[in-house]
Amino acid sequence: MSDEASRCGCRRVHGRNLDEDMQRRLQRVYAPEELPDRRQFLKALGGVAAAGAFAGCSGPSDTSSPTAVSTATEPGTETASVDQSQADQPTTVSGTIAVGPSMETIEGTLEIVDGRIESITEEGVESNDIIVPAFVNPHTHITDATAKDGERARNYSWYELFIDPGLKSEINSSATREEKRAAMAATMEFMAASGTGTFVDFKEEGIQGIDDLNTVDQQEPVDAVGLLTGPIDEEADLEAEIENADGYNTYAPYGEQAERARDICADLGKVFALHSGEPSPDDIDASLALNPDYTSHMVQAREQDYQTLADNDIGVAALPRSNLVILDELPPLERLHEATTVALGTDNVMLNAASMLREMEFTSKLFDFTPTEVLQMATINGARLSKRGDEIGSLDEGKRARLTVFRTDRELQNVVDPIAGIVRRATARDVRRTILR
Ligand SMILES: [Zn+2]
């Protein structure tokens, strides 16, 4: 076995010492004409090992510590920097730019004035950098950044992880408020360092949880869209609490509060989002009947559900790495993508680093999408699901300047297709700057 194989810890899939049966299955998994078999293969291989094969092999660089983040604004700094300079400081970046929702690339220059994209022109190119919208992650639970001990839960079922009260709550409950806020801040710094500008958190711990998130959000350049998780105490003022958050989320079985929350969210322009069909299809009918802005998972989608999603314009946050680790299953991503707007998310931090780069690589290698489609699922689609498509998620004149600049002198050196390079192999080490104005 090569040094590289032993370093990245994915011995089971690097091919040198695999038994014949495994060799045969590997040949199947890489044969594009046998897509459905990939899922069988992954089940057989086991979730965590496969997650390592497709996500972890992006190497130690993608786990670059939050300490690599600085507020340096000089282009060309050696470590990834998060740029939240004064909004009135004009800035230009140039290179290969993925423009508009179609993400078609041009060689050009992007000018930022007063925190917005002033112009994108095909001139003045002075670098080989690749510039894409900052990623939008539509589904996280960052409180469980204190529960990374969940990594030992390799053989736990979904129920053992999350219900009555489940391993996640048990670990979380031993953390203090300060520890939780510190862990959340560290996760947000990692997000920025790996190119993410906005995330939607299905925030646990009700009203207190939203207060925690709002406090940390004010200190971090990444934008948190915090969904209050209900049901909350009936004594509380539901409208005021939703106003203090960015939306609402709850779980089946749904009570009367869920309907009220949906109407309040619609009135206030807030996000109403749910979970459906994760371990079982039992909650799909009730959740889609609430007509959320979007739901999440849909691993167990049934034939009739695609039509319901399409007819009611209900988007889906797809969380494939999470589904593989927890359920040993994958969502029917191609079918969902045909039916509605699908955005990629990283789900709980207990089991997955909140890296959209990893989620894109994983998705791109397991499903039949073009690199551009995967990039859209990591940017504009998440912006649309979170009702922010007019402001972020694509590089258009007038939108907020929230973008990620990739250098091409490290892992992206010699890449021919810039978008495929970012989707399929970029790591946090390749992020030159995340500009978050
Ligand atoms: Zn969730």
UniProtKB/TrEMBL annotation:
Residue intervals of the Amidohydrolase-related domain: 130-434
Region called Disordered, residue ranges: 56-100
The name this protein goes by in its record: Amidohydrolase family protein
Alphabetical list of InterPro entries matching this protein: Amidohydro-rel, Metal-dep_hydrolase_composite, Metal_Hydrolase, MTA/SAH_deaminase, TAT_signal, TAT_signal_bac_arc
Biased composition annotated in UniProt, kind: Polar residues: 60-95
Entry-linked Pfam families: Amidohydro_1 (PF01979), TAT_signal (PF10518)
